Amino acid sequence: MLNIETHADDSFSQEQEFSFTESSLITSVSAPSSRQNCFFYASMNSISLVDSRVYKPVTRIPVNSSLGVITSLAYGSLLFGSSPPDSASEILVASTSRGSIQVYNMRYPLLVNLWQQSDQASITRTRLGQRLESIPTLWTASGNNRVYLWNLESGECCRSLQVGEQSAVELNHVSLKNLNESTFGLVDSHMPVYQHSINAMVMPPYLNSYSPYDPSYVLTAGGDRCVRFWSFEESEPSYTVCSVEKSGVEDYYKMEGTVCKCVEAKRDIATSSRSSEVHPVHPKAITDMVVTGNEKEELLLTSCMDGVIRIWK
Predict the structure, then answer these.
(1) CB 281 within 8 A of CB 169
(2) CA-CA distance, 64 to 116, in Å (whole number)?
(3) What SS3 state is found at 282?
(4) Counted domains in the chain
(5) CA-to-CA separations, 231 to 171, 240, 273, in angstroms, rounded
């Protein structure tokens, strides 16, 4: 853990380090805003709530391995059924590599809902709705370039959006060499070929009060090297919103050895127009994305596998 309030100009100070006797791969970490000094982490077959004041897990939830490896965690408050407003329960949503979504009531804690995507694609990102008290929704992004909108109470899929063929980035062909016939026989010819994975999903911090959803759009980025806009109110599935040729990239950061250099890029002050052309914003897969700034001036940051961070305005 790093202390972000008492850091030097060029580094953070390490506050604590957690090391458990359980030797297992940690697949996801999440920190609930309603619980101070606590955070969640998911391993191969369990979810643990850790209290940083006592240096150990205080709650452990076992997860059936048949559901897949936990890939993403989300935490919030939700009213179940016709419960009174003051009895909202804290929920934990866990998504897995096999497309299953698990909802836990953390008051007990108990598994209260479980469902699976029809295509069983790996879920890479999950985000809870910002108005859970009125619209209990969940957004998920999958390893097949799809975005889903779910009802948390019923598990119903409200919307399913996919990258259109005209705006899709072609997958690179990977040749399989030196494999004998018996090895090929182990591969099912009917296995689905998943599209580019979505590695980042962000929601706008400012909501449209007239939208039936909360919010009405999301931004995603991932293996196809594009930043995509998804609207839940339009019939068009997605389109790219950032490109080096059209939009206002201000500068970018690049690692050269152990030195991080900022390079000022030429900026086109004209606002980017909506286009059906595909404009990858990075030469390699985008690993993460975040929105920062305020309502007057928002900045979009994207990072890439080649060590470059671009800042978009």
Answers:
(1) no
(2) 14
(3) coil
(4) 1
(5) 24, 12, 16
Residue whose token pair is 């305005």: 313
Q: pTM of the prediction?
A: 0.68
C-alpha 252/C-alpha 193 separation (Å) is 34
Find the Cα–Cα–Cα–Cα dihedral 110, 93, 44, 198, rounded to 10°.
Answer: 170
Q: Is residue 109 part of a domain?
A: yes
Q: What is the residue type of 108? A: Y
Distance CA 281, CA 247 (A): 10
Regarding beta strands 239-240 and 227-231, do their DSSP bridges make them parallel or antiparallel, or are they unpaired? antiparallel
Residue 115, domain extent: 63-166+194-312
**Edge-to-edge order in the sheet of strand 123-128:** 123-128, 137-142, 146-151, 157-162
Q: pLDDT tens, 137-185?
A: 888 988 777 888 888 888 888 888 776 555 555 544 444 455 455 444 5
